[in-house]
Amino acid sequence: MASAKGGPIRIGVVADEPIRVAGLASIVEQPTQRGQAQLTLVTGSTEELLAGPPLEYIIIDLHATSGFVSLETVRRARPDIRLIVIGPQGDDELVMKSIIAGARAYLDLTAGPEVVRQAIDVVTSGSIWAPRRLLSRLIDRLLKVPEAGFSGNPQLTLRERQVLELIMMARSNREIASQLGIEERTVKAYVGRLMRKTGADNRIKLSMFAMNMASLAGANQAGLREAHQITS
């Protein structure tokens, strides 16, 4: 996927560690493989990146001083920007919190160059990079959103939920069929049904729908916890 103007995809980077920035630069400067877009990094503070030429993607290092504040700042100012987060390893709750806050990928410090590049490619293609167990939890949150919380909230079957999880992981119809043990034409039927139920007209919008619903569920749960704390 190239930028709208056909040039390299510009990706902002918010990180305090020069070594981290250098490592990311070395990854994007590697010769592109077939089908990969050329990338270029733009470093700076959150404020500088938001004030500069428009960006579609920003990488945020949660180890940086601003850390999660930067994530929230970008989400409020430019919710359309797709975020990639670098954070600690083994903290599922932090991964969930980051994704609900707007991250489209979460990478820990053990991620190698190939994994980092693959995650960037997945995000620039419009999908989400995260462990499947966490995507399952996001879908679970989607299914728990109250009817009153979102007009037109669809009811998803177990199989539709499984297909949506795999769509969020950027799987093709053929890959979904193979993983679920069903025919590819059956997958196409499920995808069509999901689009009708959600009002999405492509797979990227399906993924975004799921993320938005998960975010709504997360906000709803946070509100309930706050209400409980106030009244207790």
Question: Gist?
Answer:
The chain has 232 residues and is of the alpha/beta class. It contains ten helices and five strands. It has a five-stranded parallel β-sheet, sandwiched between helices.
Description:
The chain is an alpha/beta fold. It has 2 domains: 9-129, Rossmann fold; 134-231, Winged helix-like DNA-binding domain superfamily/Winged helix DNA-binding domain (Arc Repressor Mutant, subunit A, Orthogonal Bundle), CATH 1.10.10.10. It contains 10 helices and 5 strands, in the order βαβαβαβαβαααααα. It has helices at residues 18-28, 46-51, 67-77, 92-100, 113-124, 132-143, 158-168, 173-180, 184-198, 203-231, and strands at 9-14, 39-43, 57-61, 82-87, 103-108. A 5-stranded parallel beta sheet has the order 2-1-3-4-5, with helices on both faces. The longest helix has 29 residues, at 203-231. The chain is globular, with a radius of gyration of 18 Å. The model is unreliable at 145-151 and 219-232 (pLDDT under 50).
